[in-house]
Amino acid sequence: MKLCRVKGTVVGTAHHPAFDGCKLLVVQPLDERGAESGASYLAVDTVQAGVGDVVLVNAEGNGTRQILKLGNLVPIRSLIVGIVDAVEVEP
């Protein structure tokens, strides 16, 4: 699982059928203090997240396939599974 911030949306007319009805979002990984950490990537939204939301992303293909129950040939690796209300870190 990764902590990320939603940076934007992706719209495309041609895509793999596995993406039918799915909303794709650009997410930016964050460290535990909320600073950007690493390159942004695409994730399928299952929780109706919006731009600016901090989200929890399952970034492991097998777990994503199990959650979506779409079989083994699904080209989806990253799945937004929760919207984060707060992160508390010990100083």
Brief overview:
The protein is mostly beta strands and 91 residues long. It contains 1 helix and 5 strands; from the N terminus they run ββββαβ. The protein starts with a strand and ends in an 8-residue tail after the last strand.
Output the keywords.
single chain; 91 residues; mainly beta; 5 strands; OB fold (Dihydrolipoamide Acetyltransferase, E2P); 5-stranded mixed β-barrel
Question: How would you describe what is shown here?
Answer:
- By secondary structure, the protein is mainly β.
- The protein has a single domain, classed as Beta Barrel (OB fold (Dihydrolipoamide Acetyltransferase, E2P)).
- The protein has one helix at 61-68; strands at residues 2-10, 23-29, 41-45, 54-58, 79-83.
- It has a five-stranded mixed beta barrel.
- The mean pLDDT is 88.
Q: How is this fold's topology laid out?
A:
Blueprint: E1 2-10, E2 23-29, E3 41-45, E4 54-58, H1 61-68, E5 79-83
Parallel strand pairs: 3-5
Antiparallel strand pairs: 1-2, 1-4, 2-3, 4-5
